[in-house]
């Protein structure tokens, strides 16, 4: 059990730096998209020209929106929560053995079920 716990905590800790970077990338691209969308929507020319022309006139919004869509197709939504996905799957398996784990991978031993006989 100690070896399993050590390996699980090591694996989750190893994922944390990459997860933090992916979260930062997602935040930056989301803020850029929101800022570009705001500028796109408040532009009076947007209502007067066609949709594609308005996108062409706002390259910051267009590029950040395409980047955000590309990141989601690449699976960034899974990468930002990878440690919690691993912990949740481990909890599911460990429940059969009357155990659980926290978000860092530390094992939690539950008391044995009391059988009345």
UniProtKB/TrEMBL annotation:
Cellular component GO terms, alphabetical: cytoplasm; Nem1-Spo7 phosphatase complex; nuclear membrane
BP GO annotations: lipid metabolic process
UniProt membrane topology term: Multi-pass membrane protein
InterPro entries named in the record: NEP1-R1 (IPR019168)
Main location: cytoplasm
Any coiled-coil regions, as ranges: none
Protein name (database record): Nuclear envelope phosphatase-regulatory subunit 1
Highest taxon of source: Eukaryota
Alphabetical UniProt keywords: Cytoplasm, Lipid metabolism, Membrane, Nucleus, Transmembrane, Transmembrane helix
Source species: Buteo japonicus
Similarity-based family: Belongs to the CNEP1R1 family.
Cellular location(s): Cytoplasm; Nucleus membrane
Regions crossing the membrane: 21-40, 60-76
């Amino acid at each position: 059990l100690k070896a399993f716990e050590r390996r699980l905590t090591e694996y989750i800790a190893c994922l944390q730096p990459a997860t933090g970077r992916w979260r930062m990338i997602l935040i930056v691209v989301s803020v850029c998209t929101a800022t570009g969308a705001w500028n796109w929507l408040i532009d009076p020319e947007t209502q007067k020209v066609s949709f594609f022309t308005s996108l062409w006139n706002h390259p910051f919004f267009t590029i950040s929106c395409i980047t955000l869509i590309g990141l989601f197709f690449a699976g960034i939504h899974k990468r930002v929560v990878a440690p919690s996905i691993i912990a949740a799957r481990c909890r599911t398996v460990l429940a059969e053995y009357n155990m659980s784990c926290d978000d860092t991978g530390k094992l939690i031993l539950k008391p044995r079920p009391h059988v009345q006989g």
